Amino acid sequence: MGLLRLLLLAVLASEPAAAGGAETVGNSSEGLLEFSVGKFRYLELKKPFPEEAILHHISSNVAFLIFQIHSQYQNTTVSFSETLLPNASGTGTDKGLVFILRPEQSICTWHLETSDPEPVQNVAIPLSYSESDPIPGGCNLEFDLDIDSNIYLEYNFFETTIKFAPANLGHARGADAPPCDVKTGQDSRWRLQYDVYQYFLPENDLTEEALLRHLQRMAEVPQVQANAVKVVTLTADDKTSVSFSSLRGQGVIYNVIVRDPFLNTSAAYVPAHTYACSFEAGEDNCSSLGRVSTKVFFTLSALLGLFICFFGHRFWKTELFFIGFIFMGFFFYILITRLTPVKYDVRLVLTAVAGSVGGIFLVAAWWRFGILVLCMLCVGLVLGFLISSVTFFTPLGNLKVFRDDSVFWVTFSCIAILIPVVFMGCLRILNILSCGFIGSYSVVLAVDSYLYTSLSYITLNVLKRVLHMDFRRAFINVPFQTNDFIILAVWGMLAVSGITLQIRRERGQPFFPPHPYKLWKRERERRVTNILDPSYHIPPLRERLYGRLAQIKELFQKEQPAGERTPLLL
């Protein structure tokens, strides 16, 4: 069998090299999958049938190869040999191996297999680099492979973290690799720089075809630089770990390009992707992220918010209930999440109850004391919170200075407090603006519970930072695609319409309603002293309740037959 294998490799080496773009079907001979340098190939792997990939006619100016294979969520194993060794194989959804070529070597093989019981759709590509290009993962000391060009990705609800091994300087075939940590000068690997790139898949598209197609834009250096967004540049002194805000249900591809600024060369690591959710989970998986409790909560909030957007100033007490609900609900959710391990649905129900209590309390405080400035301070702070959240939703939030919690929260609080202070002289305008922007944004949050939109992360990023201490180091980039532009237009249209309608309707009207308790007290005194007022003769509330109960009892009493029931008196 070994002799037949050698003969077969010799025949393949004598054939002309294949040309073309991304290959959907490649040539195969006797179980061998033929690849060409820089050409993608789609393939399907099945559990009991491992495959062997082969690349022939490797140019003599190629110093090393990176073979990478990708799937959506099912694991694939790539190895240098049929026997799987920890330092010569990798298993995962985005895996690659670096092959340092020997002198005169023109053929290279890899072994591919999967342990998943279902067939796995993959896309794979071998990439070649010269001796002047840096070797991704060439100074690996943390992971299993000797030379590890893979990006290791971890995620939770709050953040997604990528890690990778440091690179090394390139070298010619047959030469020894430069030492990694003997020298730290400009003639060592410490001169290398790492550009971290982020690429967003189309929103609400969880298909396998879309992922494998877009992964082809993140494999080679020119394509990565042309299609992805560079987030940060790391030096050899920095830790090779970067955190991002997790976007559940949104596909994201990450890659790192290592550059040698002295030789002006570069090489790409193996790209890694995530949806920040599981396709195989029984509950709350990628296909069903929106919980019923979330949809009910935010739908009801959106209905009330839509009413406030157009009629909030006229129905002052309803608006105060809405503001008190937001105020108390937000702080209660933070408190119960940080202090108790209760489940999400229970937390949401308790938040709704606490928010309702907060809304009733604010309405009661206005009814009894009538302190307009205090009520408008609450309204202005909620609007200030939204405006401050929008400010840090922009690229301003990724500035390094704001990774310090003290700087971030002081700046955030100053912006939030500045809004009610600026509008303290025109409280009606402040109130109408708050109704328009806050009420319409509740509609955005309701849409997000049914359909992904990045605009929900305006406030969600702030909530994440409160609940998760390590979120301060995360980059908060989000995609802004067609759905987001449409929802942003709807938000703006609702806000402008609501504000315009309320300003026109309230023209010539009193700025705010009078103190309810004083009105009630004055009305009660008037009824007591004015006997000509028909309301003076209205029975007290207790007598009216007793009378109403008596009428209800009569409905259930048996009717007495008509006629005389007593004996005649003589």
TrEMBL record:
<keyword id="KW-1133">Transmembrane helix</keyword>
<feature type="domain" description="TM7S3/TM198-like">
    <location>
        <begin position="299"/>
        <end position="503"/>
    </location>
</feature>
<dbReference type="InterPro" id="IPR025256">
    <property type="entry name" value="TM7S3/TM198-like_dom"/>
</dbReference>
<dbReference type="Pfam" id="PF25992">
    <property type="entry name" value="Ig_TM7SF3_N"/>
</dbReference>
<feature type="transmembrane region" description="Helical">
    <location>
        <begin position="406"/>
        <end position="430"/>
    </location>
</feature>
<feature type="transmembrane region" description="Helical">
    <location>
        <begin position="480"/>
        <end position="501"/>
    </location>
</feature>
<keyword id="KW-0732">Signal</keyword>
<feature type="transmembrane region" description="Helical">
    <location>
        <begin position="437"/>
        <end position="460"/>
    </location>
</feature>
<feature type="transmembrane region" description="Helical">
    <location>
        <begin position="320"/>
        <end position="336"/>
    </location>
</feature>
<keyword id="KW-0812">Transmembrane</keyword>
<feature type="transmembrane region" description="Helical">
    <location>
        <begin position="374"/>
        <end position="394"/>
    </location>
</feature>
<dbReference type="GO" id="GO:0043069">
    <property type="term" value="P:negative regulation of programmed cell death"/>
</dbReference>
<feature type="signal peptide">
    <location>
        <begin position="1"/>
        <end position="21"/>
    </location>
</feature>
<protein>
    <submittedName>
        <fullName>Transmembrane 7 superfamily member 3</fullName>
    </submittedName>
</protein>
<dbReference type="GO" id="GO:0005886">
    <property type="term" value="C:plasma membrane"/>
</dbReference>
<feature type="transmembrane region" description="Helical">
    <location>
        <begin position="348"/>
        <end position="367"/>
    </location>
</feature>
<dbReference type="InterPro" id="IPR042502">
    <property type="entry name" value="TM7SF3"/>
</dbReference>
<feature type="transmembrane region" description="Helical">
    <location>
        <begin position="296"/>
        <end position="313"/>
    </location>
</feature>
<keyword id="KW-0472">Membrane</keyword>
<dbReference type="Pfam" id="PF13886">
    <property type="entry name" value="TM7S3_TM198"/>
</dbReference>
